[in-house]
Amino acid sequence: MRRPRIHTPQPLCSGERLELEEGAARHLLQVLRLQRGAPLTLFNGDGDEYAAQISDTSRRRVEVRVGASLDPEPEPALRIHLGIGISKGERMDFAVQKATELGVDAITPLLTERCVVRLNHQRMAKRLDHWHQIAIAACEQCGRARLPRIHDTLDLSAWLGTTGPTPGILLDHRATGTLGRLPPPGPGVRLLVGPEGGLSEPECRRAGEHGFTGIRLGPRVLRTETAPLAAIAAMQTLWGDFRQPAPGVS
């Protein structure tokens, strides 16, 4: 059985004992049905991992003993900041989950002209927490030890004004350029994707004014939850960690 990987926001240090959060405890006890003495791996999102062992349990409580520090996760070869128009239903959940698995460094949900999702402040805060939990679960599953940052929702114009000098790529099926023709972006890149229906022409022009280069992903028009994943995978292949060998392989 694969050793479970569990996220906790608590500081981690070898030799300590700590009580896991309710959700993690419920998963270990009720889903995985682990008992005292079972091994697991702990991480808190900063890139480090620790071997651990369940030292005590009760009906809803799990205490663990933190063991040795494991090899830290390397810094990302390419820091991708995904700005994505908020889509409806489970499409946004899917995009957050898979973008996390593919190694994005940050995600900002964007309000654009064609967004059909409009939530008040309280409901949006709940949605942000929901996306954060999706990212945590994706990290636990895929082996990431660094959590992507899920930023507060912003209007597109506000996001464009705060992204700084980092190179930007805009997915636009009307563009003529392709990823393969772009120069390497350096250590970081911004990726902008619209919601259902894409970005309007004025929004695309504003993105261009802020340094974004429009590219298309082949001859097909991809859905809003598919397009960023295809682009991220291609970017990781061209410039990121898809080029890196497995640990221990030279």
Map the helices and strands:
Blueprint: E1 5-7, E2 17-19, H1 22-31, E3 39-43, E4 49-57, E5 62-69, E6 79-85, H2 91-101, E7 106-111, H3 121-142, E8 149-150, E9 154-155, H4 156-160, E10 168-171, E11 188-193, H5 201-209, E12 212-215, H6 227-238
Parallel strand pairs: 1-3, 6-7, 6-11, 7-8, 7-9, 10-11, 10-12
Antiparallel strand pairs: 2-5, 3-4, 4-5
Summarize this structure briefly.
This protein is of the alpha/beta class.
Notes on the protein architecture:
This protein has helices at 22-31, 91-101, 121-142, 156-160, 201-209, 227-238; strands at 5-7, 17-19, 39-43, 49-57, 62-69, 79-85, 106-111, 149-150, 154-155, 168-171, 188-193, 212-215. By secondary structure, it is of the alpha/beta class. Strands 6, 7, 8, 9, 10, 11 and 12 form a seven-stranded parallel sheet that branches. The protein has a five-stranded mixed sheet with strand order 1-3-4-5-2.
Please identify, by name, the CATH architecture of the largest domain.
Answer: 3-Layer(aba) Sandwich
Q: How many discrete structural domains?
A: 2
Beta-strand fraction estimate: 15-25%
Mean pLDDT figure: 92
Keywords: Cytoplasm, Methyltransferase, rRNA processing, S-adenosyl-L-methionine, Transferase
Subcellular location: Cytoplasm
Catalytic activity: uridine(1498) in 16S rRNA + S-adenosyl-L-methionine = N(3)-methyluridine(1498) in 16S rRNA + S-adenosyl-L-homocysteine + H(+)
GO molecular function, one term: rRNA (uridine-N3-)-methyltransferase activity
